[in-house]
What does this fold into?
Amino acid sequence: MKTQKLLLSNHLIPQIKSGEKRYTVRKGRRNIKLGKLMFVPAIPTKNFKPITVNVVEIRYKRLCDIIQADFPSQLHDVAEWRGKMREYYPDLKKTDTMTFVHFICK
It folds into this structure.
């Protein structure tokens, strides 16, 4: 099986390497499988190389149905999170399906 890949903002890479960040959420119903996933820096630099993680859970939920309990303890405010998601997806609607990708860094 070919290794799955997702782009990731460079500022999040250290959080993945440290184990602090253990999930990502993407707009749409993404066809991500359990197993190996490679995060590729959105802006290639010599400081940030791709990181391979192990995807352990995939969940789908509409934006309007997402609540605090859907996140690990690191999230403080769902409304703030929705605002940040709109920075990545300006056309985001409350009825859009979101894909939660939970992983463990190897």
